[in-house]
Amino acid sequence: MRPFFATLRRELRLAQRQSSDILVALLFFVLAVLILPFGVGPAPDLLRAVAPGVIWVMALLAALLSMDRLFLIDHEDGSLEQIVLSPHPLESVVLAKCLAHWLTAGLPVVIVAPLLGLMLNMDTASLIPLVGALALGTPTLTLLGAIGAALVLGARRGGVLVSLLVLPLYIPVLIFGVAATDAAIHDLPVRPHLLIEAAILLAALALAPWACAGALRHAAE
Amino acid sequence: MGLKDRNRPAATMHRYANPARFLRLARAVQPWAAVLTIICLGAGLYLGLFASPADYQQGESVRIMYVHVPAAWMALFVYTSMAAASFAALVWKHPLADLFAKAAAPIGAGFTLIALATGSLWGKPMWGAWWVWDSRLTSVLVLFFLYLGHIALTNAFDEPTRGARAAAILALVGFVNVPIIKFSVDWWNTLHQPSSVLRLDGPTIDPSMLWPLLLMGVAFTGYFLCVVILRMRAEIAARRIRALRYSRAAG
To answer: Is the CB of A160 inside 8 Å of chain B's CB atoms?
Structure first.
């Protein structure tokens, strides 16, 4: 567990020193959502209907925005090779990096989302499922994105490529996340959607670090 | 390799890690695959388009099935074979497995595109819409993007082996989508009909339609085999040319 916490501390300290990066990703999310009423018009019913979908899609894009930097800096300055060569399991280092990424990129989105929901005329009752689904879904976005980020290390135009690889994998997370909030709006049970979202998270938690570590080993060769 | 382990499947697999040995086999198989494709395609198209009856509900438009269904089968089959090859490439570092995945991806993407396009043409008269966002269509669209991502990732690196390794991991990650596609019509309420050929209780499709469908399936498989061998031979030749150029440049 020691390398896990050491990596987590290192990543959080790095994020704290470059805190403007976190702010930029969050501002992108807020602005992208708030630009919607200018596009579709300020009719409250329309905004309420599309709000969960828009918040989810923008959360997805915001997650992608910060994703390609997850391993890139370590890859460029050579510390990734040291991490791969160290005797500690690479999977736990990957997990720590993902947790740090979620704390700095995913959690702010989850916290800001209900505020944006209110501005888009969502009912206060449907805000709780929105936050719940985002809290369960954004870690999955980080874990799946980490695979993509690890795969494109050393590639030409890696940043764009990550989106091409990862967006198709994000679709199930998006479907069940939006379904949970939509169910709340229409007074249908929310629990099954949240349970599926949790199941996807658990599967990603078990499998993604493995795939990610495999990709990192090939990248560091 | 001793005579004793000739019979083990892994030993057979490693036998064909030698490109020369593989090329001998490929040259022998390719013409047969081509002949099989031509015969089955001719017979399947004739039976499907002329000799089989029109559907009692769908009329003549049911004949789209003879292209749509085999293409969809192949889209799944090619991805599954790519995932299996990627597994072999990552676990045993089998040199031809990488080559197979690289050669098969564009063909699989082509089959997926055919399945999507013919499905759209079929959907318009039957459902009244070119496209509906139901689970089967969406998951096949995801499969198409996975193919495109695989192709892009393979070609994104200056060093071909690095691209092949990365694409192999992507192929294995994306494999979760294959069972989702297969069972999407059972798990969710969809417009797309449930499967009527590969069922536990036997096919529910009439033999007069099943036979041309199966013939077309064999034809598509033969075509895939033929083209994948062609592309693998071309890739092996390209690698040899590259190696020769390097050795000449080195003096």
So the answer is: no
Give the span between the Cα atoms of A133 and A201, in whole angstroms.
11
For chain A, the structural domain boundaries read 2-220
How far is B154 from chain A, CA to nearest CA, in Å?
10
- Decide if A217 contacts B169 (C-beta within 8 A): no
Q: Is B218 near chain A, with CB under 8 Å?
A: no
For A55, other C-beta atoms within 10 Å of its C-beta total 28
Contact A169 B174 (CB under 8 A): yes
Distance, in Å, from the CA atom of A48 to the CA atom of A87, rounded to the nearest integer, reads 52
Instruction: Calculate the alpha carbon distances from B189 to A19, A28, A188, B67, B134 in Å.
Output: 46, 37, 17, 25, 8
Task: Establish if A147 touches chain B: CB-CB under 8 angstroms.
Answer: yes
Q: For the segment A139-168, what is each residue's pLDDT rounded down to a tens digit? A: 999 999 999 999 998 888 777 888 889 999
- Torsion angle (degrees, nearest 10) of CA B83, B84, B88, B90: 20
Q: Report if pTM > 0.90.
A: no
ipTM value > 0.95: no
